Amino acid sequence: MHYLLTELFEYDELSDQAKDRARREHSKMLSECDNRVEDVRKHFEISLEKIGFPKEDIDFSLGYQHSDGMAFYGRIEFSNIENILKYADQDELAHNWKTLYDAGEVNDVCFNISRKSLGLHYSHYNTMLLTSDSPPCCKFIILKITSAISDVIKAVSKKLEADGYKLLETRKTKSYIEESIRTTECLFKKSGEPTGLRIYSNETFLKEGTNIKCDYCHCMKFTKTKKDVISCNNCEATYKVKTYHSMEVR
Prior knowledge:
By secondary structure, the chain is an alpha+beta fold. It contains six helices and twelve strands.
């Protein structure tokens, strides 16, 4: 016969000092399991697609260095040119493009964002180069459209760079860390030390003198698989409990 006596606490049940430790430890865990880069990339992809820019080739580096930033490359689809020009409040150019497009006079025009030589080592608003082919009949208007879209590319790059930094900084705030702790329902020791356990919706409280049955197969024999965790000997259902007192383990 072996008995355990362990108490686990939710974040809001901890003392202020213990909460400080819990936040520090949880912040370390978030850094080790960091998915912020993917969150930033996803934001870039959604934003570029909404405007009409290609999203398949995105480069970015957000390390607070002078040469850091974000850039995107690829072919701009014909169907997106009008939307990009409207995004830039270039309604007249958007109308001119639509007129040429509907008349079939720009079928051979290709707008492509490529890397400058600088883009082989860096990624920012100045590493992108927009090129276009234009037929003689509408060369002047295509040049104006190319110039306008080039300005949009730089502006969007700068805006998304700022967005990226904001997303990265959000993960460091006290409110974000506390929200993450509560959302993941982490459990701690009295000192604020994390246990690696979470609250189960069907959690079982093991109290002294109580005969415990598995919720699934009603077996009454359990094995301690690790501290604060028990497993049913029959169906191997695992229980992580908030507070328990006496329990027999094999």
